[in-house]
Amino acid sequence: MASERMLQFVGREQSYPDKRSAEERARDFREIAERYAAPDADAQASRCSQCGVPYCSVHCPLHNHIPDWLRLTAEGRLREAYELSNATSTMPEICGRICPQDRLCEGNCVIEFSGHGAVTIGSVEKYITDTAWAEGWVEPLHVGTPTGQSVGIIGAGPAGLTAAEYLRAMGHEVHVYDRHDRAGGLLTYGIPGFKLEKDVVMRRIERLRDGGIHFHLGFEVGKDATLDQLRQKHDAILVATGVYKAREINVPGNDAAGVVAALDYLIASNRKSFGDTVVEFEDGRLDAHGKHVVVVGGGDTAMDCVRTAVRQGAKSVKCLYRRDRENMPGSQREVANAEEEGVEFVWLSAPESFTADKSVKQVAVQGMRLGAPDASGRRSPEPDPGRKFDLPADMVIKALGFDPEELPHLFGAPDLSVTRWGTLRVDHQTMMTSLPGVFAAGDIVRGASLVVWGIRDGRDVSDQMAKWLKAKAISEKKAA
Fold first, then answer.
1. Which intervals hold domain Dihydroprymidine dehydrogenase (predicted)?
2. Predicted model pTM
3. What confidence tens digit (pLDDT) does each residue in 180-221 have?
């Protein structure tokens, strides 16, 4: 019976796909693990306990039907498993690679709590969709009956691409505008290849282009056209630009040569992987080769930076974080991968100043300790007077997170209202901004950083846009 294939977690151990050795993978930007072979994927999927209340789905931002497609995989019904995983996510193979499963679905797996080790959900999801691509099961985008309405999307990241797919499937003409020369946003230029190889992203974008979605790349809203000009061209606008403004470190020497922003560094590295000429990399400003590198921050962006520096041939790589390991926001798996590759983590530490002559040479570090809990219950870091030390540094990478850009100024749209945090002010039921017909994806409403949230928000906001476009068409028909 099919049910006998499941609940194998007691007799079958948890097993992730084998990782390449740290020495080997530190020499390239390929993904560090291959996908499962079919018997291994089936066996790992069969460990699922098929709980009545699936906490994995509850804690998934997309609410994927995880137990169902695990069961289908275990039963060898892989095409059905793919179709079910694809029903709630436009990019399941990307989520399988970069979603922080250890603090979402796998971190809340019931058998993880029982001590048997979580089901390897992300690796199975990656296997399912990679197989679907290889077997030709990924169908072209099905375009709905033409509505005669046009939508402009600003931003070709995960939220923008997801909204574009749903809106095109509804029959709308869709134009996507992005300031970079390739679509994909952080999927293309922010996340390194060792976590997400770029052909995985490019094939998704080609599918959208083949479905009739128009991409306008190297296009800066506010420079090549104002927001108002785009509003006159389209029936509705979606702002899905993400949050790209780097948070600063307010310490002496912050503006010294060699102190660089994380995203500038990662974009340069990813461009090199595409074979582009990058002046700042060629002249050494954004190349870690032969340097003592210090990365400041404890999130996933910091993990991307330290592991990129290793692959560029840095002399040493250290990561400063003001809290301890248990309280860092980044994925613990990424920390473990970084440690295997030779990264040194300096916990409970923060930069006090950067010493430089022509370029940064040293970081003065203030030791930290955890004080009383704040309003969220998280213990706040505070200086530890007894701990101060210096670290050599030829390159310092600031990875402290991101804030929204000043979109009203950037887009030439002073009537576009923002909150006191700089995020777009919206009606949270309709996702419409202060400008009629202009909607916003959630990442620039609340500053979220998880890629999967961008995918979900793209789906959610496309539904709200579709309702508004339908009402607009009915109103115009009555007026005529």
1. 25-136
2. 0.93
3. 999 999 999 999 999 999 999 999 999 999 999 999 999 999
